[in-house]
Design a protein that fits this description.
The chain is an all-beta fold and 177 residues long. The chain contains no helices and 18 strands.
Length: 177
């Protein structure tokens, strides 16, 4: 059994987007040659997203955000998400001045992933890749995770999560419909 990696949001350093038009905090960087990454980005102004070939993206709105995906407007409320390829033309803007979004990216060569929103810690699954606390708290062994803290479970076995109502973003293998 290996332990999970806990990433504290307060320990993450802000970094510019690849195109320099925004700021993100990387929770997990994509390994060279494929895999997946996870970050929390802040959108303060209308900005084009970086083009990232051979990558699929899932964006979960923490705060309301307005996207234009290949010229089609999509408004996401908190907890809503959009999927798009890394080569699509995407422009993002905050609905209320400043918005935060959770970005999941995975290589086209990797298994497909998805983000699910779970509203109670007792409903979290241990077969997830990662869990991000969006609201409330999550108890993971002896550790208490607060807003935007993350536990990466990839390849780990955990005893259990505990806690109660909250809002959690769960990265997991995409369901096959």
């Amino acid at each position: 059994m290996t332990s999970a990696d806990v990433i504290r949001y307060d320990d993450l350093q802000p970094a510019p987007w690849q195109n320099g038009l925004g700021v993100t905090r990387a929770i997990r960087a994509m390994p060279t040659g494929g895999g997946w990454s996870l970050s929390i980005a802040t959108i303060d102004q209308r900005a084009e997203f970086s083009l990232i070939p051979r990558t699929q993206r899932v964006q979960l709105a923490i705060d309301a955000v307005r996207l234009e995906i290949d010229g089609r407007e999509v408004v996401l409320g908190p907890g809503e998400q959009a999927r798009f390829a890394g080569t699509q033309h995407v422009v993002g803007a905050s609905v209320a001045g400043s918005s935060q979004v959770l970005n999941l990216m995975y290589s086209d060569a990797s298994p497909a992933l998805e983000v699910a929103v779970v509203r109670d810690a007792r409903e979290l699954s241990l077969d997830s890749e990662a869990v991000v606390v969006l609201d409330g708290e999550l108890i993971c062994g002896p550790l208490v995770l607060a807003r935007f803290d993350t536990v990466v479970l990839e390849g780990c076995a955990m005893a259990a999560f505990s806690g109660g109502p909250g809002l959690f973003a769960v990265v997991r293998a995409a369901s096959r419909d």
